[in-house]
Amino acid sequence: MSEIYEIKNLSSKIEVGSIEKNFQKIKKLIFSNFNNGSIVCWLNHRLLFGNIINKEFIFVEKNSIDFNKHLLRLRVFNDQKEILIQKRLNDFQYRLREDNNGGKNQEYIDAEQIIFGTKSKPIDNKFSEVIEDRGIKIIIPSDWLQNKQLSLQTRLILKTRNYLDYNNYGQISIIDCRFIEITVKE
Predict the structure, then answer these.
(1) Contact at 8 Å (CB) between 182 and 135?
(2) Phi first, then psi: what are they for 145, rounded to 5°?
(3) pLDDT in tens, 37-85
(4) Which residues form the domain of 12?
(5) CA 149 to CA 184: how far, in whole Å?
(6) pTM, 2 dp
(7) Residues 119, 121, 125, CA angle at the centre, nearest 5°?
(8) Per the domain annotation, does 148 fall within a domain?
(9) Which residues lie across from 42 on neighbouring strands?
(10) Which of 58, 78, 170, 182 meets the CB 3.0–4.6 Å disulfide criterion with 37?
């Protein structure tokens, strides 16, 4: 856990912009930056997890979701970069953050959060159901489990990178956060 408190400098590039409420245009923006990665979508009625493999979305219910109607926010990420897209009034705003690709030096700390779920069972050869006794259930790509079974001791972990900056008084705070990976740890 000592890594969580270690501050390092890295070069981080940021791009921000807006895109109209059209999922085909959102896909084009994503695929211009990612061939492969992980994706988390916040929809009006659920949370959806998946992968991008060779510029194709891999979801458990790929064809039955109307993203134009239900998408609120999504994050596509890998160990080097993330694009965050969030719904605003008349469009979507996006932020692309890419480490070690130019930009300014940035201090950061990495953190790991436990994702609810103490049991897992395969649905098919691509997806698994993760269950918590208190009633939480999510469906994730099976490769995130790395052929391990979840338990109270073996948990699904979200690793994030938190970028730091100083205000005018010299106080440090987190100014941005990106997902790095979802993995299993004991």
Answers:
(1) no
(2) -80, -15
(3) 999 999 999 999 999 999 999 999 766 788 889 999 999 999 999 999 9
(4) 2-111+159-185
(5) 9
(6) 0.90
(7) 150
(8) no
(9) 47, 73
(10) 78
CA distances from 179 to 19, 24, 63, 71 (A): 21, 23, 25, 19
How would you label 118-154 residue by residue, b for 16+ Cβ within 10 Å and e otherwise? bebeeeeeebbbbbeeeeeebbbbbebbeeeebeeee
Residue type, 20: E
CA-nearest of 35, 65, 58 to 127 is: 58
Structure tokens at 29: 């923006």
First to last CA, the chain: 13
* Residue written as token pair 């395969």: 122
Residue 106 CB neighbour total at 10 angstroms: 20
